[in-house]
Amino acid sequence: MRMDAQPELSPAPVQQQTPQASAPAPDAPRPAAEERTTSKKSALGEEGPVSTDWSAQFESLQHAFVRLPVATLLSAVLAFRPRRRGTPPRQAPVIQTQIILAIVGAIVMLVVGASLARAFGIVGAAGLIRYRAKIEDPKDAGVMLSTLAIGLASGVGLYLFASFATIFVLGVLWAIESIDPTPYALFDLEIATKDSASVKEAFEDVLRRRRIPFELRSTSADAISYEVKLPLHIKTDAVSDALMNLHPERDINVKWEQKKDIKA
Length: 264
Fold this sequence. Notes:
Alpha-Beta Plaits; single chain
């Protein structure tokens, strides 16, 4: 009996599977470099609450040491710019206010940083100010804004920066207030004596030595009249005594009449 040979079956090819990368476990630690990158954030540029640890405090203080003097210097360049011929003279309170406003802007931007939330918060705080009383000195308005900015810095926890800003504003105010003109009162001064022309120069020397600006109004045989800008720290009695003591043998009468209110 004849049996037919059956063909041999070749084994099926084995498919090689490429190993797949296993996903890291949820609780796997991050690399150290990534931790350093994510943990180092600027205290002035983060969203949300400001970090108040010592590193953030010193960082804000380092920024303030540079930025506040730069703002002061650049604003002073504009405030003290040369005056062109024919333009009105600049008033000292306006110059001082321009410098203070630049410092206020620098303080506010240091507090805001890159945080949009803090920017809206500052706008809302500034909108609460309703000061209806008349402010005679524009510099006082700048000081009010300075106190607002310092309060904002304290409110977000930048205590070192707020302290430095307070000292810096005080120093700038002390420096710029030194350019204030001496306040004075305007008087009509009448000196009555015989032969007034012979003692006119002596009277005017007394006013010059005391640095009292004056302008001759009228003169006659028995009297001399001046318009005098008397500084507030000089008393009329002291000037009258000096005038009458020039010639004790003469009968000299000194009369003061204030014309206008006190000016600066």
